[in-house]
Amino acid sequence: MYWHGHFQSAFFEEWIDQGLPAPERYSRDYKRRLSEIRFAADVNRGKSPALDPPLLDSVYGFGVLVGQIFGELLGISGPRLESAADLCGRFNLGISLFDYVCDETGGHRSIARIPVFQQFVGSKFDETHRLDPVEKFLSELATGILTDIHQLRPARARQPGGLWNALQKMFRAELAMSETGFNGFHDTELIRKALKLKSEEPFRIMAECVALSGEIRDRHGLAAARSLGRSVGNCYWLIDDAKDVWEDLRNNRWNIFLLHAAKNSPGIFEREIDSLTEVRLMKLWEASNVAERLSKKATRGLRKVLDDRDVPSQNRQQALGYMAASLSNWLKFD
């Protein structure tokens, strides 16, 4: 738990230093808004905890609120934002279930059996395979999401350009990281790029979906939306990896902090993982100030992107306040 508290202090110290709003003022309202959002779908959950209704509401609700944050920062409101926020909610839910299938079942093999993902995997669907409740729901959810994203394509374009390419890259990175553990040769730069795509790109995609839904279609406007999405995604990437670092260690999964340790001490994962591994990792991270350095880079990057946009101060303050509250809420440990 020391690591979690240490990272939280380091991150929000840098956040406040960049003139971004403290989470405490917005935390109660953020939790209230999140609790009021429901995922309106009839789901056959079977026996899977991944399809528990309160969990679906929470994951969908987070995506909706992120979509609303992007809308405020991009100057989009009304029915267009409502539709875009729903798409962001479903997209976030799809990413979560995709991760679940990759991490908890058969990884690439399980994903390859879901028909909607054939266009990304490049293999043929096995018609004899019967999808379990999670796979079936994910297939239906992803089909609707991809249909909606396809409809956002510019006029006369066969695919929605950059969005479709981003989806393909994110999909491949998700699969690659689900099959890349600590053993064997590590190309740390390839792993870093895959982690970045896996963790930042969903937010870049959500930001672009919001922009396109709000009829932002010029090159400069879309580039600004993508930059905003990536800078927001970078913050959530750090928060998520900081929270999950010990779970990822136990499950042989890379994250940005474990990768940092491997780069600075290449043999650290060659020995058996035990209670002393955590001690060694903490010493490495403290010696290199990794929490402070990565937090400073992420918050400075976000501030720079925001300063390049002409956003009314009230909208900006409220959107970033809710973002701060959601980041802080994410770092609450059970």
Give a verbal description of the structure.
It is a single chain. By secondary structure, the protein is mostly helical. The chain has one domain (2-330): Farnesyl Diphosphate Synthase (Orthogonal Bundle), CATH 1.10.600.10. The protein is built from 14 helices and no strands. It has helices at residues 2-17, 24-36, 53-74, 78-104, 108-112, 118-121, 133-151, 161-178, 188-213, 219-250, 256-264, 275-288, 290-307, 313-330. Helix 2 packs across helix 14. It is globular. The mean pLDDT is 88.
Quick rundown:
The chain has 334 residues and is mainly alpha-helical. The protein is 72% helix and 0% strand.
Radius of gyration: 20 Å
**CATH-wise, what's the superfamily?**
Farnesyl Diphosphate Synthase
Quick one: overall form? globular
Largest sheet: none
- What's the rounded overall pLDDT mean? 88
CATH level 1 class label: Mainly Alpha
Give the N-to-C terminal Cα separation.
10 Å
Name the descriptors:
334 residues; mainly alpha; Farnesyl Diphosphate Synthase; 14 helices; globular
Tell me the layout of helices and strands.
Elements: H1 2-17, H2 24-36, H3 53-74, H4 78-104, H5 108-112, H6 118-121, H7 133-151, H8 161-178, H9 188-213, H10 219-250, H11 256-264, H12 275-288, H13 290-307, H14 313-330
Helix pairs in contact: 1-13, 2-3, 2-14, 3-4, 3-9, 3-14, 4-7, 4-9, 8-9, 9-10, 9-11, 10-13
